[in-house]
Specification:
This protein is α+β, with helices and mostly antiparallel strands. It has helices at about 10-35, 55-65, 125-130, 195-205, and strands at about 45, 65-75, 85-90, 95, 100-105, 110-115, 140-150, 150-155, 160, 165-170, 175-180, 185, 210-215, 225-230, 240, 245-250. The strands form 6 sheets. A 4-stranded mixed β-sheet has the order 7-11-8-9, with no helix packed on it. The chain has a 3-stranded mixed β-sheet with strand order 2-5-3, with helices on one face.
Amino acid sequence: MKISTNSKKDVYTHAAIIIMLLLVLFFGFFFVYLPFSTNHGEAITVPNLKGLSMEEAEELLDDRDLEFEVTDSTFTPEKKPLTVLSQYPLENSKVKAGRKIYLTINTETAPMIKLPKLTEMSVKSAEQQLLVSGLLKPNLEYQNDIRENEVLEVRYEGKKMDAGTLIAKGSKVTLVVGNGTGDTEIDVPCVESKNFDEAQIIIKGSGLSIGSIIYDESSSEPAGTVFKQQPACNEGNKIRSGEMVDIWVAGKQPN
């Protein structure tokens, strides 16, 4: 079909037709072809995959026409092996069909680490050191020893463990801890009729601790004198090292 261009009207008509064709192509490309080819308006919500097994995660993604790729793995003792620890994009993100979701999973085998030195530490310090090293909060087993709340030994599955021994990350060890009482029995020292300062020296010098201190203004003894103790120092009366001796002191309690 030929369009005459013998007049200005014909030229204007010709230009208008060209402009209309260009507009049709423009709107057709951006508002018909592109939305159709890119699934415009059909965004998919990313599900929460954390805590799921690999099989569960794969099934959930397949149902939403999404793919996945494992990009990293780490070990978290409280999580089951081969479960999803994190994901990207995050849950509730809007993505297109076929988008790949990147996963970090929990490893099946725990890495081996060196057991830190824990003996001669307080229980609290040892527990902190274990947590920093990737081990669980330990079990505590107390035994008679005057080193109260001090770690004497480390055991794992019933066996003694030395510092530097390899152990699986996430394991739980047992700390053997002193209870402040020794195995050795000694005669109860006599501090009755001693002044308070002297009584303290005698008790502590015997490897014992001072327990309760009870002041009594009604006592006929001079102020500051110990007039009673528990346990009593009867002949043959024994006490374990580290145990406590309660004393009663004549006079008013000092401020």
